[in-house]
Amino acid sequence: MHAYDEELAQQVMDHLLHRLRLDPPPLGRLGEVGELSTALKDAIGTGPRPVADVLRTYTDDLEPTVVSCDHPAFLAFIPGAPTKAAALFDMVLSASSLHGVSWLEASGAVAAENQVLRLLADLAGLPPAAGGCFVSGGSAGNLSALVVARDTGRRTRGLGDAAPVRIAVSDQVHSSVGNTLRIIGVEPLVVPTADHRLTGDALRTALDAAERDGGAPVVAVVATAGTTNAGIVDDLAGVAEQARTRGLWLHVDAAYGGAALFVPELRDRLRGIEHADSLVMDPHKWMFAPFDCGALLYREPHLARAVHTQDASYLDAIHGADGDTPGEWNPSDYAYHLTRRPRGLPLWFSLAVHGTDAYRDAVARGARIARWTAERVRARDGLELLREPELTVVLVRRTGWRPEDYYAWSKRLLAAGTAFVTPSVWEGETVARLAFLHPDISEETVGGILDSLVGEGS
Ligand SMILES: *Cc1c(COP(=O)(O)O)cnc(C)c1O
């Protein structure tokens, strides 16, 4: 089973190259439970099966029911659109069993990942000492960072390991932050937002009130650079100033919006991000890396090391007897993980192959098509633009539609193979939401989607 099998390799490669050449790939469809359990019924037996048969199960029955998030018209949630270079190099990672736990085992992979982290840190304006690691995504990054925020906050205040503390978050914060706080036993101080944006003023008011309410001390604040639902960037500079004057840890969740740092015209919206004590960006979103790739950075990585380094006698070898040599880096020390794939390498490869200018242009394209779409919506009878897009999300009301109309519309577009667009809720109302990301989405396709909203065309 571990021997190289030329025929198996060829068949898998053939499939892979076929999929990579499809431009665009089929949009895909929703699978049915019955259909899928029938397809899988005899897939795994006690003995071998011909590779071609197994591959056919995958290509004919499974793959079509996975909606292609790299289809340019996948506009739901936050799409993914890996570059071909990044997607292919992800395969190198898997096929070479590359791992990225420690410098001892994987120095070359770790050095290249750190080169990318450095590039991202420079874009954000973090100091030279900043560093971290790649994790599976924004959720893992938020969890890992907020544990460091919690423990550092307790330590610097002379509180015990289990002392209750609070972390300030806005009422718009990503659901993964809410999950994190439940998991790590930290109560949120929820700061109400005016106009969906956390501001320094709102934070000040909430912190003043928190000082009087007799609750646990607030040790950190989470700001969002690009909310997932609407692409709204918090007042990072104002929040950072409050954090600095009150000695709070500033965590910036830029899982979606961080890529805007590549584009000089968008970067100004993220002003203040350079003050982050910890920062999360998801290259598997708007930086065109394959899943699963989240970048986690700390202003002072030693604080993360103090929290996350795992202690076990069999791990002594990776930490060395006299502490780390400068430059040697163990990614396992900066998040809650141990074994990990060096998932930053596909991004490294693609950045090296294409250069950062190509990234700047591809990121900018998403924002441009969002602005174009907003203008079209505004000009159109029957459609209402709910908010000027800051990044790449456009929220649209179809006059007179009820929630079920939006859901039926979404279903129709997917069934027709035109686009994958899911409704969302804005200020209590079901609306259409278009999240752009793939640079190859055309004005023509978007125009067709808008037509379908007002009942012209499909
Ligand atoms: C997507 C997203 C997350 C979660 O990231 P995953 O990679 O899905 O775990 C967190 N915060 C924001 C703002 C996001 O857009």
Write up what this structure looks like.
With 458 residues, the chain is α/β, with parallel strands linked by helices. The chain has 2 domains: 265 residues, 3-Layer(aba) Sandwich (Aspartate Aminotransferase, domain 2); 99 residues, Aspartate Aminotransferase, domain 1, CATH 3.90.1150.10. It is built from 16 helices and 11 strands. A 7-stranded mixed beta sheet has the order 1-7-6-5-4-2-3, with helices on both faces. A 4-stranded antiparallel beta sheet has the order 8-9-11-10. The longest helix has 23 residues. The chain is globular and about 60 Å long. The model has no long low-confidence stretch (mean pLDDT 96). The structure holds pyridoxal-5'-phosphate. The site of pyridoxal-5'-phosphate has 13 residues, from α6.
**Uncertain stretches:** none
CATH architecture of the largest domain: 3-Layer(aba) Sandwich
Structural class: alpha/beta
Number of strands: 11
Question: Strand arrangement, largest sheet?
Answer: 1-7-6-5-4-2-3
SSE order, one letter for each helix or strand: HHHHHEHEHEHEHEHEEHHHHEEHEEH
Indicate the CATH class of the largest domain: Alpha Beta
What fraction of residues sit in β-strands?
Answer: 5-15%
Fourth-tier CATH superfamily name of the largest domain: Type I PLP-dependent aspartate aminotransferase-like (Major domain)
Fill in the CATH topology of the largest domain: Aspartate Aminotransferase, domain 2
Any idea what the shape is? globular
Query: What's the helix count?
Result: 16
Which sheet architecture does the biggest sheet show?
Answer: 7 strands, mixed
Query: Mean of residue pLDDT?
Result: 96
In the residues, how many domains can be counted?
2
